[in-house]
Predict the 3D structure of the following.
Amino acid sequence: MRIALVTGASSGIGQSAAVQLARRGTGVILTYGANKAGAQDTVSAIEAAGGTAVALPLDLGEAGAFPAFREAVTAALREQWGRDSFDVLVNNAGFAESALFAETTEELFDRLHRVLFKGPYFLTQTLLPLLADHGAIINIGSNSALNSGMEPGYSAYASMKGALTVLSRYLAKELSPRGIRVNSISPGATRTRLGDNAFERFPEVVPMIAARTALGRVGEPDDIGMMIAVLASEEGRWLTAQDLEIAGGYNL
Ligand SMILES: NC(=O)c1ccc[n+]([C@@H]2O[C@H](COP(=O)([O-])OP(=O)(O)OC[C@H]3O[C@@H](n4cnc5c(N)ncnc54)[C@H](OP(=O)(O)O)[C@@H]3O)[C@@H](O)[C@H]2O)c1
Protein backbone atom coordinates (compact mmCIF):
# COMPACT_ATOMS: atom_id res chain seq x y z
CA MET A 1 0.00 0.00 0.00
CA ARG A 2 1.27 3.48 -0.84
CA ILE A 3 1.55 5.87 2.09
CA ALA A 4 1.28 9.67 1.98
CA LEU A 5 2.14 12.23 4.64
CA VAL A 6 0.01 15.39 4.42
CA THR A 7 0.83 18.35 6.66
CA GLY A 8 -2.02 20.56 7.85
CA ALA A 9 -4.87 18.15 7.18
CA SER A 10 -7.17 19.24 10.02
CA SER A 11 -9.17 21.41 7.60
CA GLY A 12 -9.32 22.84 4.12
CA ILE A 13 -7.04 21.76 1.29
CA GLY A 14 -4.98 19.33 3.41
CA GLN A 15 -8.10 17.63 4.73
CA SER A 16 -9.42 17.21 1.21
CA ALA A 17 -6.05 15.92 -0.05
CA ALA A 18 -5.90 13.34 2.76
CA VAL A 19 -9.42 12.07 1.97
CA GLN A 20 -8.83 12.07 -1.80
CA LEU A 21 -5.54 10.19 -1.45
CA ALA A 22 -7.20 7.63 0.85
CA ARG A 23 -10.06 7.20 -1.63
CA ARG A 24 -7.44 6.09 -4.18
CA GLY A 25 -6.11 3.41 -1.81
CA THR A 26 -3.29 5.37 -0.14
CA GLY A 27 -2.67 5.14 3.61
CA VAL A 28 -2.34 8.61 5.16
CA ILE A 29 -0.30 10.15 7.96
CA LEU A 30 -1.80 13.56 8.53
CA THR A 31 -0.70 16.39 10.78
CA TYR A 32 -2.50 19.09 12.69
CA GLY A 33 -1.51 22.18 14.68
CA ALA A 34 -4.12 23.54 17.11
CA ASN A 35 -7.16 21.80 15.62
CA LYS A 36 -6.95 18.22 16.92
CA ALA A 37 -10.71 17.76 16.52
CA GLY A 38 -10.43 18.64 12.82
CA ALA A 39 -7.68 16.05 12.40
CA GLN A 40 -9.88 13.47 14.09
CA ASP A 41 -12.68 14.34 11.65
CA THR A 42 -10.27 13.69 8.77
CA VAL A 43 -9.25 10.30 10.23
CA SER A 44 -12.92 9.39 10.78
CA ALA A 45 -13.86 10.32 7.20
CA ILE A 46 -11.02 8.16 5.85
CA GLU A 47 -11.86 5.22 8.11
CA ALA A 48 -15.57 5.46 7.26
CA ALA A 49 -14.59 5.00 3.61
CA GLY A 50 -12.50 1.91 4.48
CA GLY A 51 -9.07 3.62 4.50
CA THR A 52 -6.34 3.91 7.12
CA ALA A 53 -5.01 7.11 8.64
CA VAL A 54 -2.95 8.29 11.60
CA ALA A 55 -2.99 11.88 12.90
CA LEU A 56 0.15 13.39 14.47
CA PRO A 57 0.71 16.87 15.96
CA LEU A 58 3.27 19.09 14.20
CA ASP A 59 4.26 22.71 14.68
CA LEU A 60 5.82 23.69 11.37
CA GLY A 61 7.31 26.80 12.96
CA GLU A 62 9.54 24.71 15.28
CA ALA A 63 12.24 23.13 13.12
CA GLY A 64 14.04 21.92 16.28
CA ALA A 65 11.18 19.49 16.89
CA PHE A 66 11.37 17.86 13.43
CA PRO A 67 13.73 15.00 14.46
CA ALA A 68 11.23 13.97 17.17
CA PHE A 69 8.45 14.20 14.58
CA ARG A 70 10.43 11.88 12.29
CA GLU A 71 10.57 9.35 15.15
CA ALA A 72 6.80 9.61 15.55
CA VAL A 73 6.35 9.06 11.79
CA THR A 74 8.71 6.05 11.89
CA ALA A 75 6.69 4.52 14.74
CA ALA A 76 3.36 5.18 12.98
CA LEU A 77 4.61 3.61 9.74
CA ARG A 78 5.71 0.46 11.58
CA GLU A 79 2.66 0.12 13.77
CA GLN A 80 0.00 0.92 11.20
CA TRP A 81 1.44 -0.43 7.95
CA GLY A 82 4.55 -2.49 8.83
CA ARG A 83 6.70 -0.21 6.68
CA ASP A 84 9.81 1.87 7.25
CA SER A 85 9.22 4.40 4.48
CA PHE A 86 6.44 6.42 2.86
CA ASP A 87 5.83 7.43 -0.77
CA VAL A 88 4.29 10.89 -0.98
CA LEU A 89 4.97 14.07 0.99
CA VAL A 90 2.45 16.91 0.71
CA ASN A 91 3.80 20.13 2.24
CA ASN A 92 0.46 21.87 2.66
CA ALA A 93 0.25 23.36 6.18
CA GLY A 94 0.29 27.12 6.30
CA PHE A 95 -1.43 30.30 7.37
CA ALA A 96 -2.03 33.67 5.73
CA GLU A 97 -1.71 37.09 7.21
CA SER A 98 -1.56 40.28 5.20
CA ALA A 99 -0.01 43.71 5.69
CA LEU A 100 0.98 46.36 3.21
CA PHE A 101 4.71 46.32 2.45
CA ALA A 102 5.29 49.60 4.32
CA GLU A 103 3.59 48.16 7.42
CA THR A 104 5.02 44.63 7.43
CA THR A 105 6.80 44.05 10.74
CA GLU A 106 9.88 41.91 11.16
CA GLU A 107 7.83 39.74 13.54
CA LEU A 108 5.20 38.97 10.86
CA PHE A 109 7.88 38.42 8.21
CA ASP A 110 9.73 35.94 10.47
CA ARG A 111 6.53 34.09 11.41
CA LEU A 112 5.54 33.70 7.75
CA HIS A 113 9.10 32.66 6.88
CA ARG A 114 9.25 30.03 9.65
CA VAL A 115 5.99 28.34 8.75
CA LEU A 116 5.71 28.81 4.97
CA PHE A 117 9.32 28.37 3.84
CA LYS A 118 11.83 27.33 6.52
CA GLY A 119 9.34 24.78 7.89
CA PRO A 120 8.74 22.86 4.62
CA TYR A 121 12.46 23.21 3.71
CA PHE A 122 13.78 21.51 6.85
CA LEU A 123 10.82 19.19 7.34
CA THR A 124 11.46 17.77 3.87
CA GLN A 125 15.19 17.47 4.66
CA THR A 126 14.39 15.70 7.95
CA LEU A 127 11.94 13.27 6.36
CA LEU A 128 14.06 12.56 3.27
CA PRO A 129 15.55 9.33 4.68
CA LEU A 130 12.00 7.99 5.10
CA LEU A 131 10.82 8.98 1.61
CA ALA A 132 10.89 5.98 -0.73
CA ASP A 133 12.66 6.03 -4.11
CA HIS A 134 10.19 6.77 -6.95
CA GLY A 135 8.04 8.74 -4.54
CA ALA A 136 6.63 12.24 -4.95
CA ILE A 137 6.68 15.58 -3.17
CA ILE A 138 3.93 18.14 -3.69
CA ASN A 139 4.42 21.62 -2.24
CA ILE A 140 1.46 23.94 -1.86
CA GLY A 141 2.32 27.45 -2.98
CA SER A 142 -0.19 30.15 -3.89
CA ASN A 143 -1.19 32.07 -6.98
CA SER A 144 -0.46 35.21 -4.96
CA ALA A 145 3.13 34.48 -6.05
CA LEU A 146 2.03 34.65 -9.74
CA ASN A 147 0.92 37.72 -11.70
CA SER A 148 -2.65 36.39 -11.85
CA GLY A 149 -3.15 36.39 -8.07
CA MET A 150 -1.28 39.49 -6.95
CA GLU A 151 -3.10 41.59 -4.33
CA PRO A 152 -1.72 44.45 -2.22
CA GLY A 153 -0.87 43.24 1.28
CA TYR A 154 0.66 39.89 0.43
CA SER A 155 4.29 40.83 -0.30
CA ALA A 156 5.69 38.70 2.55
CA TYR A 157 3.23 35.78 2.29
CA ALA A 158 3.59 35.55 -1.49
CA SER A 159 7.39 35.86 -1.34
CA MET A 160 7.54 32.81 0.93
CA LYS A 161 5.23 30.90 -1.41
CA GLY A 162 7.36 31.92 -4.39
CA ALA A 163 10.45 30.67 -2.56
CA LEU A 164 8.72 27.33 -1.97
CA THR A 165 8.01 27.04 -5.70
CA VAL A 166 11.69 27.66 -6.51
CA LEU A 167 12.69 25.10 -3.89
CA SER A 168 10.38 22.58 -5.58
CA ARG A 169 12.34 22.89 -8.84
CA TYR A 170 15.66 22.44 -7.03
CA LEU A 171 14.37 19.38 -5.22
CA ALA A 172 13.11 17.99 -8.53
CA LYS A 173 16.66 18.28 -9.88
CA GLU A 174 18.51 16.98 -6.84
CA LEU A 175 16.13 14.11 -6.08
CA SER A 176 15.65 12.93 -9.67
CA PRO A 177 18.45 10.32 -9.38
CA ARG A 178 16.18 8.57 -6.85
CA GLY A 179 13.19 8.85 -9.17
CA ILE A 180 11.43 11.25 -6.80
CA ARG A 181 9.17 13.72 -8.60
CA VAL A 182 8.66 17.18 -7.12
CA ASN A 183 5.96 19.60 -8.21
CA SER A 184 4.12 22.52 -6.68
CA ILE A 185 0.53 23.67 -6.84
CA SER A 186 -0.43 27.34 -6.72
CA PRO A 187 -4.08 27.46 -5.64
CA GLY A 188 -6.24 30.49 -6.22
CA ALA A 189 -8.72 31.70 -3.61
CA THR A 190 -10.19 28.55 -2.06
CA ARG A 191 -12.99 28.37 0.53
CA THR A 192 -11.16 27.10 3.64
CA ARG A 193 -10.45 28.32 7.18
CA LEU A 194 -7.41 30.30 5.95
CA GLY A 195 -6.92 33.81 7.36
CA ASP A 196 -8.79 33.11 10.63
CA ASN A 197 -11.73 31.77 8.67
CA ALA A 198 -11.86 34.84 6.39
CA PHE A 199 -14.44 33.30 4.03
CA GLU A 200 -16.93 32.95 6.90
CA ARG A 201 -16.11 36.38 8.34
CA PHE A 202 -16.35 38.18 5.00
CA PRO A 203 -18.86 36.24 2.85
CA GLU A 204 -19.21 39.28 0.57
CA VAL A 205 -15.84 38.41 -1.04
CA VAL A 206 -17.23 35.19 -2.54
CA PRO A 207 -19.21 36.78 -5.40
CA MET A 208 -16.35 39.21 -6.02
CA ILE A 209 -13.88 36.35 -6.43
CA ALA A 210 -16.36 34.38 -8.55
CA ALA A 211 -16.78 37.37 -10.86
CA ARG A 212 -13.01 37.44 -11.50
CA THR A 213 -12.82 33.67 -12.09
CA ALA A 214 -13.27 32.39 -15.66
CA LEU A 215 -15.12 29.28 -14.47
CA GLY A 216 -17.47 31.51 -12.47
CA ARG A 217 -17.20 30.37 -8.86
CA VAL A 218 -14.83 30.35 -5.89
CA GLY A 219 -12.48 27.38 -5.41
CA GLU A 220 -13.44 24.58 -3.03
CA PRO A 221 -10.97 22.35 -1.12
CA ASP A 222 -11.70 19.33 -3.34
CA ASP A 223 -10.71 21.33 -6.44
CA ILE A 224 -7.17 21.33 -5.04
CA GLY A 225 -7.28 18.07 -3.06
CA MET A 226 -8.20 16.04 -6.14
CA MET A 227 -5.30 17.54 -8.12
CA ILE A 228 -2.91 16.71 -5.28
CA ALA A 229 -4.13 13.10 -5.39
CA VAL A 230 -3.66 12.94 -9.17
CA LEU A 231 -0.14 14.40 -8.98
CA ALA A 232 0.73 11.82 -6.32
CA SER A 233 -0.61 8.92 -8.37
CA GLU A 234 0.62 6.83 -11.30
CA GLU A 235 -1.14 9.29 -13.66
CA GLY A 236 1.39 11.94 -12.60
CA ARG A 237 4.44 9.78 -13.22
CA TRP A 238 6.01 11.91 -16.02
CA LEU A 239 5.47 15.29 -14.37
CA THR A 240 8.26 16.89 -12.36
CA ALA A 241 9.66 20.38 -11.67
CA GLN A 242 6.32 21.98 -12.58
CA ASP A 243 4.09 24.51 -10.86
CA LEU A 244 0.37 24.17 -11.59
CA GLU A 245 -1.94 27.12 -10.99
CA ILE A 246 -5.25 25.59 -9.92
CA ALA A 247 -7.60 28.55 -9.83
CA GLY A 248 -10.42 28.07 -12.35
CA GLY A 249 -8.90 30.75 -14.57
CA TYR A 250 -8.52 33.55 -12.03
CA ASN A 251 -8.06 36.93 -13.77
CA LEU A 252 -7.90 35.12 -17.11
N1 LIG B 1 -7.41 28.91 0.83
C1 LIG B 1 -6.80 29.63 -0.08
O1 LIG B 1 -7.37 30.55 -0.70
C2 LIG B 1 -5.36 29.33 -0.43
C3 LIG B 1 -4.84 29.89 -1.61
C4 LIG B 1 -3.51 29.64 -1.94
C5 LIG B 1 -2.74 28.84 -1.11
N2 LIG B 1 -3.27 28.31 0.03
C6 LIG B 1 -2.39 27.47 0.88
O2 LIG B 1 -3.02 26.22 1.10
C7 LIG B 1 -2.49 25.64 2.29
C8 LIG B 1 -3.63 25.07 3.12
O3 LIG B 1 -4.41 26.13 3.63
P1 LIG B 1 -6.01 26.10 3.66
O4 LIG B 1 -6.48 27.14 2.73
O5 LIG B 1 -6.52 24.71 3.53
O6 LIG B 1 -6.26 26.70 5.14
P2 LIG B 1 -6.76 26.04 6.49
O7 LIG B 1 -8.10 25.43 6.34
O8 LIG B 1 -6.59 27.12 7.52
O9 LIG B 1 -5.71 24.88 6.78
C9 LIG B 1 -4.39 25.17 7.18
C10 LIG B 1 -3.77 23.93 7.79
O10 LIG B 1 -2.40 24.23 8.11
C11 LIG B 1 -2.19 23.95 9.49
N3 LIG B 1 -1.21 24.88 10.06
C12 LIG B 1 -1.26 26.23 10.06
N4 LIG B 1 -0.19 26.73 10.71
C13 LIG B 1 0.55 25.67 11.12
C14 LIG B 1 1.76 25.52 11.85
N5 LIG B 1 2.46 26.58 12.29
N6 LIG B 1 2.23 24.26 12.10
C15 LIG B 1 1.55 23.20 11.66
N7 LIG B 1 0.38 23.26 10.98
C16 LIG B 1 -0.10 24.49 10.71
C17 LIG B 1 -3.55 24.09 10.15
O11 LIG B 1 -3.55 23.33 11.34
P3 LIG B 1 -4.45 23.69 12.66
O12 LIG B 1 -5.67 24.42 12.18
O13 LIG B 1 -4.71 22.33 13.24
O14 LIG B 1 -3.59 24.55 13.54
C18 LIG B 1 -4.45 23.49 9.07
O15 LIG B 1 -4.43 22.08 9.14
C19 LIG B 1 -1.69 26.74 3.00
O16 LIG B 1 -0.31 26.54 2.78
C20 LIG B 1 -2.15 28.01 2.29
O17 LIG B 1 -1.18 29.03 2.31
C21 LIG B 1 -4.56 28.52 0.38
Remarks:
- The chain is about 45% helix and 15% strand.
- The mean pLDDT is 97.
